[in-house]
Amino acid sequence: RNSRDAPPPVDAVVRVYVPATQVEAYLSIDSPENGGAAPTLETMLAALAQEGVVHNIDENRLNQIAATPSYEFDLLVAAATPPVNGENGKAKFLINTNRKNFKPKENEDGSVNFYDLGIVENVAQGQVLCIITPPTEGTPGISVKGKELPQKKGKNVPPLAGKNTELSEDGTEIRSKIDGQVEFDGFKIRVDETFYVKENVGNSTGNIKAVGNVMISGAVQSGFKVEAGRNLDIMSMVTGATVRAGGSVRLRSGIIGSELHCEGDLQCRFIENCSVFVKGEIRAESIINSNVTCGKSVRIVGARARIIGGSCLAGRNIEAHTVGSPSNTATKLELGADHMVIEQKKMMAQAEKLEKQIKSLTPLVTILRQLEAENRLTPEKRKILDDVGYSYENSTAQLAQIRQELEDIAGAVKTRGFGRIVCTGTIFPGTKVTIDKTIFIVRDTLKNASLYFKDNEICLGSAR
Q: Which of 39, 268, 321, 407 is the right S-S partner for 251, CB 3.0 to 4.6 Å?
């Protein structure tokens, strides 16, 4: 056969395959026949261009194929730049979000405080409760054909600002709008002015300390403490406990063997064997064997309306139906001048404390100053003298100031005058009445009587 009968040469055929997603581009090359030309870089680039593949072409791979032709199917020669998805927004809580399992707090020395379970979390106005990191947009990718591949944008944090909270203008912080107790219910952060205890205050709750109001549905059990920055409302008994409130206190029952401090008014049924300090007014049905200090009036009302035993100091009036008892129980009543009485009592306690401190420091200060005069002070003793001397002089100055203020208060009390003790029933012997250091001891039973201060003596009049 001659050369005219030989089949013509067939060059290699380059086919391009791009999936619909356009994330990759593949070559499939038919091998040449009869001495046809092998694929070249130029022919492969031309085939890719014809199919619109322009991005991220792997020319190294194409050169390898051209140098060592490979006639396999699906040769990967280009890949898209993948999109970078955005990150979801994040919420970093600065409060306790798990308030179900309360555990006793551990002290620094390793001991455990079973009275402090951390049931209340107080926050201040403006306090940051949660930090929010906004979602990111991410960046789009580029397909092998040069088209944009959309990314998934990050999701926003769900709205978390609840009652009495607010989102900052830039959306990165949730802050409290008030002083109160914070709680997260799994959906919203909320701050309440009132903290509710739906059971007794005892082993299951530990002590309660809230900056706002506190409402307790049960009792306060022995050994436990309740502190409210504002008002306090207790539905059942308070026994052997400590109760403090920056506002008013309402006890639907009574209080026995406890300490109570109240900056507002106190309303309760009975007070028995207690130490009570109330800056406002007291309204109760009975006070028995208790030491009571009240800035305004003590009003004992109801069927019995009695004060028996202990002491009762009021800034204004003391009103009751019965004072003392037929067995001549020692009962002390004293009148002052409203808030001045409170300040006077506080200052007297401070003065007593300072006097003790000065008395304990005086011998040491005297010795050290004597050594100083003799030029015998060592550097160590010099430091002691500096420290102790400062304390001594500071305490002495404070004591002088307090004594002056006590004199001023005493003068103001005399100018302002006093209230009355009014008893619509019986004042029994054994009752001691004090008004401005003047003492009146009830030796005979008094009926329907009032006692008041006039012309520097305690006078007796009718209750009505």
A: 268
Task: Quote the CA–CA distance of 243 and 210 in Å, as a whole number.
Answer: 12
Q: Is the pTM of this model over 0.85?
A: no
Count Cα atoms within 13 angstroms, Cβ side, for 322.
Answer: 16
Strand 420-427 relative to strand 318-323, pairing: parallel
Are 77 and 61 contacting, i.e. CB atoms less than 8 angstroms apart?
yes
The pLDDT of residue 107 is 55
CA atoms of 237 and 463, how far apart (whole Å)? 33
CB atoms within 10 A of CB 390: 10
Residues 6+ positions from 360 with CB-CB distance below 8 Å = none
Highest mean pLDDT among 91-100, 364-373, 446-455: 446-455
- On the question of pLDDT at 1 being above 50, the answer is no
What is the pLDDT at residue 112?
47
DSSP 3-state of 34: coil
Q: What is the secondary structure of 323-354 as a DSSP string?
A: ES-TT---EEEEE--HHHHHHHHHHHHHHHHH
Number of H helices, E strands in the chain: 4, 40
Q: Is 342 left (phi over 0), alpha (psi -120 to 50) or beta?
A: alpha
CB atoms within 10 A of CB 50: 10
What pLDDT is recorded for position 79? Answer: 95
Calpha distance 206→225 (Å, rounded): 8
Task: Give the separation between CA 177 and CA 169, rounded to whole angstroms.
Answer: 14
Q: Tens digit of pLDDT for each residue in 129-168?
A: 999 999 999 999 999 999 999 999 999 999 999 999 999 9
DSSP line for 69-84: ----S-EEEEE-B--E
Residue with tokens 């919203």: 188
Are 37 and 8 in contact by the 8 Å Cβ rule? The answer is no
